[in-house]
Amino acid sequence: QVQVVESGGGLVQPGGSLRLSCEASPSIFRFQFMSWYRQGPGTERELVATITMRGGDTFYSESAKGRFAISTHDAKNAVYLQMNSLKPEDTAVYYCYGGGYVNAWGQGTQVTVSS
After folding, report:
1. What is d(CA 69, CA 81) in angstroms, rounded to the nearest whole number?
2. Spatial separation of the C-alpha atoms in residues 71 and 8, rounded to whole Å
3. What is the pLDDT of residues 62-83, one digit of tens each?
4. CB atoms closer than 10 angstroms to residue 101
5. Least C-beta-crowded within 10 Å: which of 13, 59, 67, 112?
């Protein structure tokens, strides 16, 4: 059984930064790719960023391009989402998702961007 667990959410002022972490067990390499999704108040869950486990190819939503960066730490079985220049509209619950031959969703971590 594979699991993913997020951490790192919190309250940040507009223009600030946060780094979200997602730890996979037993290994991130059980997945073909890992993604971050988010769901804001009254909105549907949307894809933010994806990274492939082999090759490290990345994909970003238009809203994330230039501000967010997805990366992995193989030894820690972790995937990160570095979020910079945060805006109030980035407020959402952020979910980690591992996909491919097996799939797993995390429980989500709240990010609130507010002054």
Report:
1. 6
2. 15
3. 999 999 999 999 888 999 999 9
4. 8
5. 13
